[in-house]
């Protein structure tokens, strides 16, 4: 049936058209990446077998994406008559599905180049066409050369083409968004396998490895800090009581049945139950023994084989904060990937809804491998699709520098977040903790490559996507008595600033995207900031056109003062997400919807947030952006004032 339908589409699209030879002979560069991402090195000593299997996936151009902003504004702008009327999955699928012509054109080209029809598969969502190809065939189709790459730190292997790939002009202009695997090194780091260690001549042991692409800032301690319930100690030890006091955030009275808070994590990083209980015993005794609702995606499960902050610290901390703040509401952990292959946020998108199993970024066989995983201890079950319903709030710790990916890739993934927003999900990302530098304290040189130390500012992704809420990082001002300061209405927090402890690291991130345009909801706030005379001396370092998406949008505490037992930029997004989850619960009780995409409402009613005007975001050899009164590129609109936020969202339909 599938082959027959493809032939019908092909016939319909090609009647009266120019000959296939003329249509598909003129190749143009479709995507290029001038510099191999840092820490990835091509293996000069290894040539790929031309006959080796290299499945290709062709992301088809979708319809109506030019109307995406209008669509999401309609359900998220407080002035809209359709506010809160989120779309169903069926509405999303039918609105953005590629045209029959696009499916037919790509299929015709593949058939013309010797790819048998039984090797061509159109996904159920019609967004991707998969081809069971070889390295030789992929190189022939894309006019490129594939190589094996190794990660310099982990030895992790990857297969990608070098520099660029080309496709026929008609496909590039009208029918194809991107093709994977090609240039996209969107690879969450994992511990090296035994084979990778042997290849690098290393011992077969468990090395300490920072698995976070957002690099958690922490000196991890297995013991909970003492004395945390003293509010005068919040500048030393940040506790749930401190957070509730800072943001006037009371405990929830009940859990809404249909409410959900999802936190994504990627194997082999996973939580450790005993560490959760240490925290709960100190700050929330009723939670001792409780665990998140764990959704294993493609083999994701709690692992106890390797210990240390690099493996458990980040997710332990995020779960401790989230579970304590939203109780009795449950938290869902979307644990993706087995211990061998790992996973990425693409894998999570796959599992949230069956349509994503043939969508976004991927199914890159070196990134989101086809299961079963044949490696020892690998997951041998089926590919996970449509397991959980998309949660009301979703946070994840993984981010990259924009320069490490291609604009086509970033744009396509960004539209995925918009689709989640259309369906009622609030997607939150931390703005990173390297100030104006990219992940790893890397800046942009004149030729666009990433370098450590100095250069142009290097914005992160997906924080710069206009359809996510980017969360900056604050800390309590050291030495301040927050009880007295709050009573007087004084400033209690400032932008995170710990570079004196961790040089080049520990600053709230933010900046102007080099890929995404400024959304209408933030134009007034950003243009006001751009008029500041403080920016004139650094304008050559960033995208100062006045037309670029700027971030962060908001901020929240992510630093544990002088103790630094457990702190991370991702904590800010986790804390903010906890407040949104509780607001969702309050709205769901009387039958209202979740709040979904929150940026338009927060920019329109910024008084529901407390301005943070102290600090800056140093990096790249400069002082970075300054925090000022009103919105800024360090702390956004400010930190949450829960009663005001609740009043705002409860007043909306």
TrEMBL record:
<feature type="signal peptide">
    <location>
        <begin position="1"/>
        <end position="18"/>
    </location>
</feature>
<feature type="binding site">
    <location>
        <position position="612"/>
    </location>
    <ligand>
        <name>Ca(2+)</name>
    </ligand>
</feature>
<dbReference type="GO" id="GO:0004252">
    <property type="term" value="F:serine-type endopeptidase activity"/>
</dbReference>
<dbReference type="GO" id="GO:0006508">
    <property type="term" value="P:proteolysis"/>
</dbReference>
<keyword id="KW-0865">Zymogen</keyword>
<dbReference type="GO" id="GO:0046872">
    <property type="term" value="F:metal ion binding"/>
</dbReference>
<protein>
    <recommendedName>
        <fullName>Peptidase S53 domain-containing protein</fullName>
    </recommendedName>
</protein>
<dbReference type="Pfam" id="PF09286">
    <property type="entry name" value="Pro-kuma_activ"/>
</dbReference>
<keyword id="KW-0720">Serine protease</keyword>
<keyword id="KW-0378">Hydrolase</keyword>
<keyword id="KW-0106">Calcium</keyword>
<feature type="binding site">
    <location>
        <position position="632"/>
    </location>
    <ligand>
        <name>Ca(2+)</name>
    </ligand>
</feature>
<dbReference type="InterPro" id="IPR015366">
    <property type="entry name" value="S53_propep"/>
</dbReference>
<feature type="domain" description="Peptidase S53">
    <location>
        <begin position="237"/>
        <end position="652"/>
    </location>
</feature>
<keyword id="KW-0645">Protease</keyword>
<keyword id="KW-0732">Signal</keyword>
<dbReference type="InterPro" id="IPR050819">
    <property type="entry name" value="Tripeptidyl-peptidase_I"/>
</dbReference>
<feature type="binding site">
    <location>
        <position position="611"/>
    </location>
    <ligand>
        <name>Ca(2+)</name>
    </ligand>
</feature>
<dbReference type="GO" id="GO:0008240">
    <property type="term" value="F:tripeptidyl-peptidase activity"/>
</dbReference>
<keyword id="KW-0479">Metal-binding</keyword>
<dbReference type="InterPro" id="IPR030400">
    <property type="entry name" value="Sedolisin_dom"/>
</dbReference>
<dbReference type="GO" id="GO:0005576">
    <property type="term" value="C:extracellular region"/>
</dbReference>
<dbReference type="InterPro" id="IPR036852">
    <property type="entry name" value="Peptidase_S8/S53_dom_sf"/>
</dbReference>
<feature type="binding site">
    <location>
        <position position="630"/>
    </location>
    <ligand>
        <name>Ca(2+)</name>
    </ligand>
</feature>
């Amino acid at each position: 049936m599938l082959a027959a339908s493809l032939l019908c589409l092909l016939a319909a699209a090609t009647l009266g058209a120019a000959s296939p030879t003329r249509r598909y002979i003129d190749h143009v560069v479709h995507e290029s990446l001038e510099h191999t991402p840092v820490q990835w090195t091509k293996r000069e000593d290894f040539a790929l077998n031309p006959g080796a299997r290299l499945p290709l996936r062709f992301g088809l151009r979708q319809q109506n994406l030019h109307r995406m902003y209008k669509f999401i504004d309609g359900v998220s702008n407080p002035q809209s008559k359709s506010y809160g009327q989120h779309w169903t999955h069926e509405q999303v699928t039918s609105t953005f599905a590629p045209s029959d012509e696009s499916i037919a054109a790509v299929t015709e080209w593949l058939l013309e180049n010797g790819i048998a029809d039984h090797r061509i598969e159109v996904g159920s969502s019609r967004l991707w066409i998969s081809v069971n190809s070889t390295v030789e065939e992929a190189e022939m189709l894309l006019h490129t050369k594939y190589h094996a790459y190794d990660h310099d730190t982990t030895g992790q292997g990857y297969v990608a083409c070098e520099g660029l790939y080309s496709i026929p002009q008609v496909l590039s202009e009208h029918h194809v968004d991107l093709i994977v695997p090609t240039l996209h090194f969107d690879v969450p780091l994992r511990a090296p396998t035994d084979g990778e260690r042997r290849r690098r001549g290393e011992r077969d042991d468990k090395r300490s490895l920072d698995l976070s692409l957002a690099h958690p800032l922490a000196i991890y301690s297995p013991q909970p800090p003492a004395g945390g319930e003293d509010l005068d100690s919040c500048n030393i030890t940040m506790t749930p009581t401190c957070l509730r006091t800072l943001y006037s955030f009371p405990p929830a009275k009940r859990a809404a049945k249909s409410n959900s808070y999802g936190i994504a994590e990627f194997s082999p990083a996973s939580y450790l139950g005993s560490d959760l209980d240490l925290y709960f015993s100190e700050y929330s005794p009723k939670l001792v023994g409780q665990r998140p609702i764990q959704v294993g995606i493609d083999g994701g499960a709690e692992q106890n084989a390797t210990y240390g902050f690099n493996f458990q610290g980040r997710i332990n901390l995020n779960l401790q904060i989230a579970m304590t703040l939203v109780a009795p509401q449950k938290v869902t952990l979307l644990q993706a990937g087995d211990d061998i292959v790992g996973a990425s946020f693409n894998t999570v998108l796959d599992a949230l809804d069956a349509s994503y199993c043939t969508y976004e970024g991927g199914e890159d066989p070196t990134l989101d491998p086809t299961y079963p995983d044949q490696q020892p201890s690998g997951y041998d079950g089926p590919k996970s699709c449509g397991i959980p319903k998309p949660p009301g709030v979703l946070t994840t710790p993984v981010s990259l520098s924009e320069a490490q990916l291609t604009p086509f890739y970033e744009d396509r993934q960004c539209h995925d977040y918009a689709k989640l927003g259309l369906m009622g999900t609030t997607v939150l990302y931390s703005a990173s903790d390297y100030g104006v530098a990219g992940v790893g304290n890397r800046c942009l040189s004149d030729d666009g490559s990433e370098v450590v130390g100095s250069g142009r500012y290097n914005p992160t992704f997906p924080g710069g996507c206009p359809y996510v809420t980017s969360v900056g990082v604050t800390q309590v001002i050291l030495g301040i008595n927050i009880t007295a300061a709050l009573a007087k209405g004084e400033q209690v927090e400032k932008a995170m600033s710990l570079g004196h402890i961790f040089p080049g690291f520990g600053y709230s991130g933010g900046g102007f995207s080099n890929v995404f345009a400024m959304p209408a909801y933030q134009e007034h706030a950003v243009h006001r900031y751009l008029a500041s005379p403080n920016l004139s001396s650094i304008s050559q370092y960033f995208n100062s056109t006045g037309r670029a998406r700027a971030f962060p949008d908001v901020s929240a505490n992510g630093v544990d003062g002088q103790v630094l037992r457990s702190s991370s930029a991702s904590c800010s997004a986790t804390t903010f997400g906890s407040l949104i989850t509780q607001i969702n619960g309050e709205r769901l009780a009387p039958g209202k919807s979740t709040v979904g995409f929150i940026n338009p409402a927060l920019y329109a009613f910024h008084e529901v947030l407390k301005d943070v005007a102290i600090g800056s975001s140093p990096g790249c050899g400069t002082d970075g952006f300054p925090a000022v009164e009103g919105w800024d590129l360090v702390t956004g609109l400010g930190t949450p004032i829960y009663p005001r936020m609740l009043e705002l969202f409860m007043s909306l339909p």
